[in-house]
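Researcher: Re-running this chain for the archive, since the previous output was lost when a drive failed. Same request as before.
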Amino acid sequence: MRVKGGTVHVRKRKKILKLAKGFRGKRHSCWRIAKQAVMKALKNAYISRRLRKREFRRLWILRVNAASRQHGLRYSEFMGGLTKAGVKINRKMLADLAIRDPEAFARLVELARSHLPAPASAASRSS
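Model: Regenerated structure tokens:
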């Protein structure tokens, strides 16, 4: 006896074609092409969600570095000083502070600088 899987079949195709809404050409109407386009789009969306996190972290580090260099500290020194001081502020918040509240950021730079070891004199480095 033959069983027709009509409703399931149609529902499955409708779901894919709905996801392909807005695609150009046959990609939004032709089942085979739409299926491939949707699969690729979903894969790229998954990858891009991870890339976005990476790119934002890079942006925050750039902003914190630029702001800390204005106060005479490199990024690595600034972050090292904050760690030694026991300050647990993430890079996103530091970047936001650098832009919105420069006075508070300057205080953080001074705190980080106070927890760094004193630099060796220039005479001892040359010998």
